[in-house]
Structures are given as C-alpha cells and as structure tokens.
Amino acid sequence: MFIINENLALKVISNMNDSFIFVFLLGACVLLVRQTGGGNRDEQQLGERAPAWVNDNDVTRCQHCNNRFKNSIISSRRHHCRSCGRCVCSNCSQRRILLEYCKAENEVRVCDACYTHFTGIAVTKNAATLIKPTRDIERTILYGDFRMTSGNEVVWISLQEDFHLHVFGGKLDQAENHAIKLSDLVDIQLDNDTRTFTLRETSKTHVFILESNHLIFYEKNDLLDEKLTNAGTKLNFYVNLWFEAIQLARSTTLPDWYIRKRDSADSGVSNIG
Ligand SMILES: [Zn+2]
Ligand SMILES: [Zn+2]
Q1: 46: helix, strand or coil
Q2: 3-state class of 80 per DSSP?
Q3: Ligand 1 center to residue 110 CA distance, Å?
Q4: What is the pTM of this model?
Q5: Of 123, 109, 129, 137, residue with least CA distance to 37
Q6: N or C of the chain: less Cβ packing under 10 Å?
Q7: φ, ψ at 165 (rounded to 5°)
Q8: Which ligand is closest to the CA of 113, given by its number?
Q9: In this structure, are residues 37 and 86 in contact, taking their beta carbons and an 8 Å threshold?
Q10: pLDDT tens digits for 211-265?
Q11: Can you tell me the distance from the alpha carbon of 158 to that of 215, in angstroms, rounded to the nearest whole number?
Q12: Is 92 helix (H, G, I), strand (E, B) or coil?
C-alpha cells in the first residue's frame, strides 16, 4: 500500500500554478484516505512522531463521526488528534493518552479510533451520531471542485456510478451535503464561456461553475487522449468531459472511457497533462 502523507501531497497540488494535478499523488492520497479516512494513520507509526495535521479547509465534517462542524449542535469545534492528525469533533476526541513522541510528559487528545488502537477499549457511540460515508472513490467517474453560485462556496463534486452528483463540503469529507439524482433532471445547460453548468429539476435548479484550478481524477487512456487533442485546451477538455459524463449519467449510461478503480487499483493512476 502507499505510505504517503496526503497533506503533503495535497499541498504539492495546491501549490502548483498549473491547472492540473499529479493524479499519481492524488491517487495515492485517495487510496490513503480511503483506507484510513484521512490523517496520518499508518498504524505502525502512530504515536511515534507528531502527525501532520489535516488542513481545516479540507474538511467540513468530523473525520470520525462525519457530522458537520458548522451547525452541529453537539460539538462544532475542530480538534486534531495528536496521534493520527485527523480533524475531529470534540465528541469524538474526549480521550487523552500518553504518546511516545510526547516523551511521556502529558496525556494528549486523541480521536476515538486512536484511543481504541492504543488501549483496545472500544468507544461506544450512539449510532444516531454516526453518519454513513457516501464517498465511493472506487466507483467515481469524475470528481473535482466547483463553485456553487448560491452562497458562492467551493464544493467538491463527485459523479459516482449510481448516476448521482454527490456534493461534498471539503475535499477530504467522506459524507456528502446533498446529492443530485441526474435521471430526475428536466434540463442540462452548459455555458462554455463561463464554465457554468445549470441543472434543472422540476422544482429546483442547481448552478455551479467549474473552477479553473479544477482537479480531476480518472484513468488515462486513448479515448481521453483523443478528447484532449480535440478540445484544444485542458480547461475545455475538463468542461466537455463533465458535460458529457453528466448527460450520459442522466440516461444512466457510463462513459466509454470510464475505468472502474476497483478493478485497477494496483496499477496506479495517471492523468492527462
Ligand atoms: Zn465526531
Ligand atoms: Zn486519531
């Protein structure tokens, strides 16, 4: 498996001036995030050294219970687990233990998962407070960041094999804020100049803009190489790719270039660029 700190990888990505990403790094992140839920959770090394903390901006939900930090009645404060570095709510980080790298000075705050890892004691939670993850990386056709015109907030949208657009608050969030069922749409429009997608349901309209620092994740293949050549610019390519994929998903069809990650997770990933 990949042993890579996804904070580092994401930092590399966000520092790039170019619009495109190292999908290898992102793929590694994704694998790590998928396996650990984010943070520095190589179990061999937990507690041995200070973890890199997950960036507050990358999560809008607790990385343990998936509750939103904002508007959460119980525990809206963000805390970082001193063992794994994940960003968790206070409800999921009530325990303190001694960690090796802290030189046994003081007990420090850890998340419930790390507490169980070190002590063997399960932390029981009210099932109602645990929110089920909805991010399915292995069955994701495309994902990337968009700006919603309502509220002007940047969200992370994932088109999954269930033909829904899953809208996440942060790039490391595992539970969505809401999902758009594409087969329910009555109209899809794209304004190429502004990269604005308008998706209409009978009673609701969703408008979002593909960000110019758009991140994209897919397996490189000849069909995509050809699309890139035809599109002229990479930004056009991304806009076209999303538009095509959304239209196909509306009629519950997968794009011909799509390769499921689960079948090829060990072969690594790459991007066009
Ligand atoms: Zn929590
Ligand atoms: Zn932890």
Answers
A1: coil
A2: strand
A3: 12
A4: 0.77
A5: 137
A6: N
A7: -90, 120
A8: 2
A9: yes
A10: 877 767 677 789 999 999 999 888 999 999 999 999 999 999 999 999 887 654 4
A11: 11
A12: helix
Cα 173 to Cα 165, 176, 189, 195: the distances in Å are: 15, 7, 28, 25
CA distance from start to end of the chain: 25
How many helices (DSSP H) and strands (DSSP E) are in the chain? Answer: 5, 11
**What domains lie within the chain, and their CATH numbers?**
42-129 (3.30.40.10), 137-267 (2.30.29.30)
Cβ contacts of residue 236 below 8 Å, gap of 6+? 192
Question: What are the residues facing 191 on neighbouring strands?
Answer: 196
Cα–Cα dist 93/113, whole Å: 9
CB 58 within 8 Å of CB 47: no
With a CB cutoff of 8 Å and minimum separation 6, the contacts of 241 are 142, 216, 218, 224, 227
